[in-house]
Every structure is written in structure tokens, then in C-alpha cells.
């Protein structure tokens, strides 16, 4: 029986796990990676919220997820939820497919450079990789990442272009994602420890007034131009190396940064004009 949580627009059901006798092997031909409907997307949030909501109630967590879907980076279908499912498994009463594993992708503006030549490309960031506890230990996440790597080579690309790379952050170590082509790199994540309330009260009286930094303000910050120039310089000093830079205008999690580069293809294919 599904367990419901009311969240603004109505209840969001916690889908029941697939009966263990019906779970297919991860290499089954009927397993496929598909784009989730909005209803299925909310079900994936309902599932991972049980483990990821932290101090939030599940209602607050789901409200936050809906809010995040309405931002410039994600709205209008930019963020895509993916389901690993099987065509042999039954649909629920609302027509939602069974969820063996799930993840999300967000398109990002990026630059790649080689031999002093810089090109703007579209890549994807990957997040929210999740398998519910009842379905773990069956290699569903492995199958999902294998299929996702293939799909992201051309997904949302224009004019037949192919994506030069995709990125993700891992808080489960370096080995798992490296098995599917996402190699570990040193993270550029910066962690700023929070002040204690006492320290804040002591220092804040001498701090200048501040205003919120909004997305529109970022266009006036020359950081991207500086990094693009640095990228060109690095590529000139090492012509054989494919260097990359991407911009993600939202908070990101810490952990190990992984990048999956399709380096077996020629430069002209990796970074098309």
C-alpha cells in the first residue's frame, strides 16, 4: 500500500517496492532508462527524501524540490529525471512506472580548449543518483550509469553535436563512478566553516553591510572570462590535452568530482563548431 504525503498540489505517494520475486536481473533486456514524468519525478523525490531530507520534514523537503525545479537552471524541462525501469513490471494505479533506480541531469554551459582553441559546448551535470534500500545489491545503479553515459553523448545536443564530457560529484568515494567512465579529479569545492553565534556577534559589528548575491549579478563578475583565458593558456602549454571548464550557478555538494570525457574521438568531434 502506498504511503501519502500532502504537498501543496495534493498527496505524493511513496511507491511500494517491487516484490522481490518480480525484480529482474540488472542485465535483463527489458530494463531501460527512461525520462520520468513529473509525477514519477516527484515519486523519486519522495523516495530519496526519506534518506536525504536531513532536518526537514518530508513535506518541507518535497516543497524545496519543487521550488528548485522552478529556477533558471532547471525550469522549462532543463532538469530531467531518469528512471531505470522494466517494461515487464506493472504500472501503478496512476500509470507510473516501477522505479528500480533514479537520477537527475542538468544541462550546463561549458568550454573546452585544445591547442589554444576555445569552444563553447553543452554538457550535463548528474545528481540525485539513488536506489531504494529494498532494491540495492542488484547492480541497478550500475546498469543505470552505464545507460546514462551512452544517452548523454547526444541528449539535448543541437545539430547532431555530441557532448565532450559530463560531470558529477560523489560522496561515496572514487571507485564506483570510475567503473563507468567518470574519472576522479581534484575537487574545486570550497568549504567555509560556519561561525559560532558568539563569533558572529563579535565580528559582525565591524563588517560592512551586505546585500544578497543574485543570479543576475553574476554576469558582472569577470571570473568566467579569467578562467577562459587561463583555459586557453593551459591548452597552449599542453596541446595534446583537452582542458575543460563549466559553469554551474547554484550550490553544489562537496565530495569527489568526476568527469567523463569522450576522449577517444577526434577534437573536431569533441568540440564541434
Automatic annotation (TrEMBL):
Coiled-coil segments: none
Domain of life: Eukaryota
Gene3D superfamilies: 3.40.630.30
Region Disordered, annotated ranges: 1-26
Pfam family, one: Acetyltransf_9
InterPro entries according to UniProt: Acyl_CoA_acyltransferase (IPR016181), LAT (IPR053013)
Signal peptide segment: none
The protein's name in its UniProt record: N-acetyltransferase domain-containing protein
Amino acid at each position: 500500500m502506498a504511503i501519502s504525503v500532502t504537498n501543496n498540489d495534493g498527496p505524493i505517494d511513496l511507491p511500494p517496492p517491487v516484490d522481490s520475486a518480480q525484480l529482474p536481473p540488472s542485465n535483463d533486456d527489458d530494463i531501460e532508462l527512461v525520462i520520468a514524468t513529473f509525477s514519477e519525478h516527484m515519486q523519486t523525490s519522495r523516495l530519496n527524501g526519506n534518506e536525504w531530507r536531513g532536518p526537514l520534514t518530508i513535506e518541507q523537503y518535497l516543497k524545496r524540490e519543487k521550488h528548485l525545479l522552478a529556477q533558471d537552471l532547471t525550469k522549462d524541462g532543463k532538469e530531467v529525471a531518469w528512471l531505470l525501469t522494466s517494461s515487464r513490471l506493472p504500472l501503478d494505479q496512476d500509470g507510473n512506472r516501477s522505479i528500480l533506480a533514479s537520477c537527475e541531469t542538468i544541462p550546463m554551459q561549458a568550454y573546452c580548449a585544445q591547442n589554444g582553441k576555445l569552444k563553447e559546448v553543452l554538457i550535463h551535470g548528474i545528481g540525485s543518483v539513488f536506489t531504494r534500500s529494498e532494491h540495492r545489491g542488484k547492480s541497478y545503479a550500475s546498469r543505470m550509469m552505464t545507460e546514462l553515459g551512452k544517452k548523454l553523448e547526444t541528449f539535448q545536443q543541437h545539430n547532431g553535436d555530441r557532448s565532450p564530457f559530463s560531470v558529477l560529484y560523489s560522496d561515496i568515494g572514487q571507485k564506483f563512478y570510475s567503473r563507468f567512465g567518470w574519472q576522479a579529479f581534484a575537487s574545486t569545492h570550497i568549504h567555509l566553516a560556519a561561525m559560532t553565534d558568539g563569533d558572529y556577534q563579535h565580528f559582525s559589528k565591524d563588517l560592512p553591510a551586505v546585500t544578497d548575491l543574485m543570479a543576475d549579478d553574476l554576469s558582472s563578475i569577470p571570473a568566467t572570462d579569467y578562467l577562459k583565458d587561463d583555459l586557453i593558456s593551459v591548452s597552449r602549454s599542453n596541446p595534446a590535452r583537452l582542458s575543460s571548464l563549466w559553469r554551474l550557478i547554484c550550490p553544489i555538494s562537496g565530495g569527489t568530482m568526476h568527469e567523463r570525457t569522450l576522449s577517444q574521438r577526434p577534437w573536431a568531434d569533441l568540440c564541434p563548431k
